[in-house]
Amino acid sequence: MTTALEPITLPSGITLHSTYAEVPDGLPLDAYESAIEMLNYIGKAHQWCIGDLLIASEAVYGDDVFNRLTERTGFNLDTLDQMRRVAKRYEPDRRRETVAWSVYESLTTLDDADQDELLDEGEDQGWTLVQFRAKARNKKSGFKADKNGYQGELPGLDEQRRLASGDRVDAMPLELNSWPEGEVDLLLTSPPYGTGQDYDAGGDLDDWDEYLDAIARWSTEIVRLVNPRHGRIAVNVPLDKSANAGQRGRPSYTGRAVYAAWVAALVAAGMEYRSTILWYDRDAGEGTTRGSIDSPSAPHIVAPCETIIVGFRGTWSRSSERSHDLSHAEWLDELGPRGLWEFPGVHDSRHPAVWPEELPERLVRLFSFRNDIVADPMAGVGTAGVVAARYGRRVWMADRSPKYADIARKALLEARETGVEEAA
Fold first, then answer.
1. pLDDT tens per residue, range 287-345
2. What is the pLDDT of residues 377-406, one digit of tens each?
3. Hey, what domains does the chain have and what are their CATH numbers?
């Protein structure tokens, strides 16, 4: 439990409490001006000042000072450590009054020359924090903005080899994912549908309450991985499912709104809902379980489509100064405003639920830019990652099955061309 902060009394007699200011009667105007000016100054500089104080106190009292100051000040340990590290990274003569501390925080991973270059340019052009962060990410990755936007051709071998240095494929379940937080630009995945389907390493559940618990865990992890400033999410799930469908001797069919449950869980985890795309698959739902055929007594309706839930973190709009793969004609014809996609599914003996390449291809081209990190944490045999690599994205994939993760890794290496070293 955090210790309450003690009030601070200024020379003018104004007492500052943690939630209000106590002002004596009869103060001259300059006392108010001085207090407000001081608070404004501290507000702008407090991270730098706290960082410098931490560096100085650490030199005298050692690491234990952090635990004591955490209890006393109300700042958590990570926040204090970040202030210390940023202050240590920049000598006072490199700090500019016109540039916010949060900008310096976003540039700490760059070398001094790159930092100064971006600080000079950003200060001169009045960049926002979002612009500074984008420029820092581009500088770190080697990305160069292309104002022409649409490329019209896939990246060559040299570009693929450079991008491969950012690829990774891991064998781990989504709920235990160890990827860094907030780095993914587009996360697209198709999680288990809750039908109890056999899988190499388990993971699907047919008990509805257990499946809802799993959805909550998976949604929390999905949102955690996505960039908090502009990250996008595309999750492919069915509209619904029917418990006990076609099983004699069981209770009557019970409908389960899988899509609705996923939307609720993702929003509860921090995703901003944007829209839903319907994927119309003529082969879907064409089983023999149709209820009371030719009679309204107990019809069983199966919609031959699946959904792609589209959401984001931070802001939906992104800078247009990036290379991409979406032409005007394609935007008008099939990948743009119409949220109803029609193409067939596929069957693959390697995996019980394989995506047709067209699904991730459309999502990658519609919702991401060249050099973005595109991730599928439930990757199966790696269809989404292969497509994303083909279009010049950095690829992160994971699957709870080591067997499928190995297939995905080999497929990604092949997509990056023979001879490209594995990066994982």
1. 445 666 778 887 777 788 899 999 999 999 887 778 899 888 888 777 777 889 988 87
2. 999 999 999 999 999 999 999 999 999 999
3. 8-141 (no CATH), 157-415 (3.40.50.150)
